[in-house]
Amino acid sequence: MARPVVGIIGNAHLINDTYQTHAGGAMNSAAVAEVADCLPLIVPSDPELAPIEDLLEACDGFLFTGGRANVHPEEYGEVATPAHGSFDRARDRLALPLIRALVERGQPMMAICRGFQEVNVAMGGSLYPEIRDLPGRSNHRMPPDGTLEEKFALRHMVTFTEGGPFHRLMGKTQVMTNTLHGQGIKTPGDRVVIDGLAPDGTPEAIYIEGAPGFTLSVQWHPEYNAAADPVSSKLFGAFGDAVRAWAGRRSGGLRRSA
Predict the structure, then answer these.
(1) Which of 145, 152, 160, 187 could disulfide-pair with 166, CB 3.0 to 4.6 Å?
(2) Are strands 5-9 and 61-64 parallel, antiparallel or unpaired?
(3) What are the CA-CA distances from residue 207 to residues 144, 176, 191 (Å)?
(4) Distance CA 70, CA 68 (A)
(5) Among 109, 121, 104, which residue's Cα sits nearest to residue 235?
(6) Where are the domains positioned within the chain?
(7) Among 131, 86, 119, which Cα is nearest to 9's?
(8) Residue numbers annotated as active site
(9) How many Å separate Cα 199 from the centre of its chain?
(10) For 194-222, how does the pLDDT look when each residue is reduced to its tens digit (9 = 90+)?
């Protein structure tokens, strides 16, 4: 029996500064295939190439990945500044309405880093352009030097809400995570519940209140070493279970458009 399909929202990327591609990190594909036990499918991050209605039919669940480009502040009513960094407007046009559609349908989604920020913006929230510039906040960015292992190493604790979905999933209220982001949640969007915080108060884990499907999303990068890390494996495992349940209901006669 074919595994359910997870659409991985890719990023625009230039090879040798000339050749335009839509790319996704191999870590994301490996986590979906090996831990969630689903078929990873890279989605071109442009709604003109991949209309949302078609994607909802083609995929059972979606993974919104990290990326160097940030959500354009215009999407939450602010003016772009140099601190906001670079943008990927085609991904904005695809990811934000797709997230809203998934929430309403109950179709499973999980979001990481930029994806985590997309979920907040899609639901009407806003972002800080640079967390490290805020009083009392730490530098959450990727270390500029070192090996891949050193850059993705566990760096800080995340504390979950007692009795919340992350606490129930992990079996504990505190876990160690990596951190590789510059931006972060400023104002939570409508129904966005902050369920985990870094020691400096930066939101690190969210879900959508009242959503009928899986919406757990994190600011850190659980795709790294996902099969071996107990926190990552539980998160991707639960996501895979939700995707299989959606696919099972569909094969049992429920149309995805229902």
Answers:
(1) 160
(2) parallel
(3) 30, 19, 8
(4) 6
(5) 109
(6) 5-251
(7) 119
(8) 113, 221, 223
(9) 21
(10) 999 999 999 999 999 999 999 999 999 99
Task: Collapse the DSSP code of 211 into the 3-class scheme (helix H, G, I; strand E, B; otherwise coil) and give the result.
Answer: coil
In this predicted structure, the answer to whether residue 254 has a pLDDT above a threshold of 70 is no
Region of residue 146 (left: phi > 0; alpha: psi -120 to 50; beta: else): left
Q: Model confidence at 256, in pLDDT bands (50, 70, 90)?
A: very low
199: exposed, middle or buried (C-beta count within 10 Å: 0-12, 13-18, 19+)?
exposed
CA distance 101 to 117: 16
Choose among 97, 90, 18: nearest CA to 62: 97
β-bridge mates for residue 187, sequence order? 126
Kindly state which CATH superfamily the domain 5-251 is placed in.
Class I glutamine amidotransferase (GATase) domain (3.40.50.880)
CA-CA distance, 46 to 222, in Å (whole number)?
25
Measured from the Cβ of residue 138, the count of other Cβ atoms closer than 10 Å reads 16
- Distance of CA 47 to CAs 41, 43, 123, 222, Å? 16, 10, 19, 27
Tokens of 218: 């994190």
Residue 244: what pLDDT?
A: 98
Residues belonging to the chain = 258
Query: Helix, strand, coil shares of the chain as percentages rounded to 5?
Result: 35, 25, 45
- The DSSP 8-state label assigned to residue 181 in this structure reads -
User: Strand 19-23 and strand 5-9: pairing?
Assistant: unpaired
Q: What angle do CA 229, 183, 38 make, to 5 degrees?
A: 40
